[in-house]
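One chain given next:
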Amino acid sequence: MSDTSHASFDLPSPLPTHSITSSAHLASPTPNPPPLFSMAKLLPFLLLSLILSSALLLLRAEDNMPHEKPTEEQLLIRRSRYGPGSLRSYQCSGECGRRCSRTQYRKACMLFCGKCCRKCLCVPPGFYGNKQLCSCYNNWKTKRGGPKCP
């Protein structure tokens, strides 16, 4: 005779035996991005270190520069807006335009003023005269001994 009693086997149940309160833990875990507040704290530190290193480099560069005391003549020239070498060559056309603006011989004035300015790197103030403020401009003469610069 066969016994109809069932043997007890411990098979895993297809249904979970514990209760699920949320489905968040079932999703695959994603890596958390770095917290923004820590980057925000790092940025001022990086900026401060950049500024300090720049200042240190500037101080080092100044230490390597020779410290010569300028002569009295060099100080006078620096203070003078119209002394020899007070202009750059690209400024000549503007200064000559100012100097020659009231002459009836504008084309000739601009030509010779431009030559003088490129050589002397200065143009006297005003529309006429004041050449003593720019010695090179004042002392450059034509073949006949007349003034070369207007």
Q: What stands out?
A: The helical segments are 36-64, 72-79, 92-99, 106-120, 135-139. DSSP finds five helices and no strands in the chain.
